[in-house]
Predict the structure of 3-oxoacyl-[acyl-carrier-protein] reductase.
Amino acid sequence: MRFQGEVAVITGAGRGIGAAIARKLFVEGCRVAIVDIDEATAIQSARAIDPAGERSMAVFCDVSNKESVDQAMAKVIANYGQVDILVNNAGITSDAMFHKMSLEQWQKVIDVNLTGIFLVTRAVVPQMRERKRGRIINISSTSAYGNIGQANYSATKAGVIGMTKTLAKELGRYNITVNAIEPGVIETDMLKAVPQKIKDGWLETMPLARMGQPEDVANAVCFLASDEASFITGVELPVCGGFMII
């Protein structure tokens, strides 16, 4: 096991990609904090990977709210004593063509997808700096490069990349690596809202010609969190079956 005794915090880990990441890190030896705004799904996810509850905890958190974030991270550190790996995965969509997008739709996605990463990372980084070790993996998206109907979502995911590179420069001296993963077409609940005709079009042109699975993203996270990636920081890693080269 690559992460024996280490502690991982995964936001948005109640289902989908986040749950797969939590499961993978748990199997590799981590104690995992499954953080989600839906406490019931967080509990369910924690029980699914660790029925005995010996190396997992479910934590309610609204990542867009500073007080909620501070309370959640304090709870994790009080329980586990440290955070070695932070995976900023929580995210939402609220799609609309730009001329129809409301300010509420814009702001809500910004608050969760971008401000959420700022708040959670800010709450965790001080103890990483003190211990001079840490791995931060931010989940961006191939939509960072533009996607029709997703001006808000694309803006946040592009912002995640900029934040990742800035933090990599600032935190490297403390032996903290910061990297971003860009999932492409991954089979999750979020993808269910996309019309089948559009998904078929993607599959026709993608080199690997298949939908990605949450486990594909989890495997990439596991690598970037490991010692094998100790000299990698500030990178964008597409996990997209070649979607970025079509």
Notes: The radius of gyration is 17 Å. Helices lie at 16-27, 39-49, 66-80, 103-131, 151-171, 196-205, 214-225.
